[in-house]
Each structure stands twice: as structure tokens, then as C-alpha cells.
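#lab-general

N.A. 3:47 PM
ok so I finally got the sequence cleaned up, no stray characters, all 193 residues accounted for. can someone with queue access submit it? mine expired

B.Y. 3:52 PM
send it over

N.A. 3:53 PM
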Amino acid sequence: MRRRVPELAIGVVLIGLGAIAALMLAGRQPPRAAVLVWANDVSRGQMVSAGDLAVASIESDIPVDVVEEAAASKVVGRTVALDARAGGFVSGSVLEAGSAIPADFAVVGLRLGAGRYPVSTLAVGDVVDLLTAEPLLGWDDPVVVAGVEVFDVLWLGSGEGSDALVSLLVPRAAAPRVVAAAAAGPRLAEVAS
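B.Y. 4:20 PM
back already:
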């Protein structure tokens, strides 16, 4: 029996070390982060309210595009770019890059052919005048609306000669004139800022 005492002691020590290692591994929690998730389904074009947001906890070392709980105030009031389901992560890719539309404004889209916009300089945030070749009926000036912001630009081709879809942020009262200008050959002129 004396011969087995060292083997038995080594076995007890190994079992004890294994138990300690198992406890250490089981007790090791990966770092967690509080992130925003959708509290309910949201639709494209919807403005985010505080009631649309909830908080979830995820492992912080997971490489996903999420918005942290601390940034909730920066999400409220933004526009949803894509439909999203309740429980999904709130991410920068699901939110519009531009700011929310002010109360007395509207976004009006125009399709402009080559030569009807400033070449290679048109970008979101630019201030432009919307012109027509001829004044609109009942309007004496070819300037349809002056000093409005480019809200979004989508290029439909590459290089010179491609069409562009341009969204303008215009005062709500001017929106009908801008829509009417779409049929009258609209042009954009960039305004120096």
C-alpha cells in the first residue's frame, strides 16, 4: 500500500488542479456591452423615436455593426434607411446618413441628365439654386427655388454624361413648384457658400 501513496497523492493533486482550472474557466465571462436593438418593427423612411429602441447585452468582442446604448440620443430623430425587425441590432447601415427632415421642409427628388448639374462637384450638403430654361406658368423667374440643400445624390452611371437622381431639401411651400419644374427641364446651379 505504501507504493501507491505517491501515486494516490499525485492523482488527488491533479484532480484538485483540474477542478480549480475548470472553475476559473467557467467563471471567466467575456466582456459585455450594452447595445441598442429595435423594440418593434420599423419601416424605411420612418423617423426613430425613443419607443423604437430597447437595450440588449452582447459580448463586446463580437465584430458586428452595432450602436452602443450611450449613443441612443444620436439615433432618436434619424430616419430608417431599411426595414428592420424587432430584436435586430440598431446599426449605422440601417440609418440614413443625412439628418432628419425639419418640420416645415420636404425632400423632392429630380432625375437630372448630363449638363443639368455641376459636373463632379455635386454632393450631399451642397447649396444650390433650382432653375428652369423657361419660367414656369404663373412664375416670372426661371429660379424655381433658391439656396436649397442637396439632401442625397445617386449617380446612375459612371463618368461624364451619366444621369443623377438628386433629392433636394426644400421649404414645404416650394415643393409643388419643384415638382412642376421636373417637367420643365430643371437645372441645378451651385451657390458659393
